[in-house]
Design a protein that fits this description.
Layout lengths: L8 E3 L19 H11 L3 H8 E5 L5 E5 L22 H5 L10 H5 L6 E7 L1 H13 L4 E2 L2
Antiparallel strand pairs: 1-4, 2-3, 3-5
Helix pairs in contact: 1-2
Bound molecules: iron/sulfur cluster.
Length: about 140
Amino acid sequence: MEAFYSRGLRFSCRRCSDCCRHEPGVVFLSGNDVRLLAEEVKMKYTDIVENYCRWVPVPGGDEQLSLKEKSNFDCIFWDRGCTVYKSRPLQCRTFPFWESTVFSRQTWESLACPGAGKGELRSGDYITACLEQRKAEPVLQRRP
Ligand code: SF4
């Protein structure tokens, strides 16, 4: 069956920052994400994990690696804008085209993002490429 987004979906970022700030959330990371961040901030891979990351329990008993948040729930890399924008994690780069958000027309239309459904038309191929990239770069996971 053809995906409901095969003819594309509209999205233009409104720069509201709500996906990076204000609310508790998770920014899950692949190994490549950690490597890129380490290069960007000139730290060792292990120091990024130790200083900027937390392990978040997921269903099934495993934990996945996520960025930390500040006490006000802003992303640890937020400071009047994303301070690692060029090297931001895949989850940020592919927003709002995630498995969970384009799972169905209903999940897409219920997305609380003022830019979703408006602005630039992103092709079905572009959306598929976002989903494929996530599959190719899985989130780091461990059994505690
Ligand atoms: S890494 Fe940058 S784009 Fe991603 S949530 Fe943090 S501040 Fe936002």
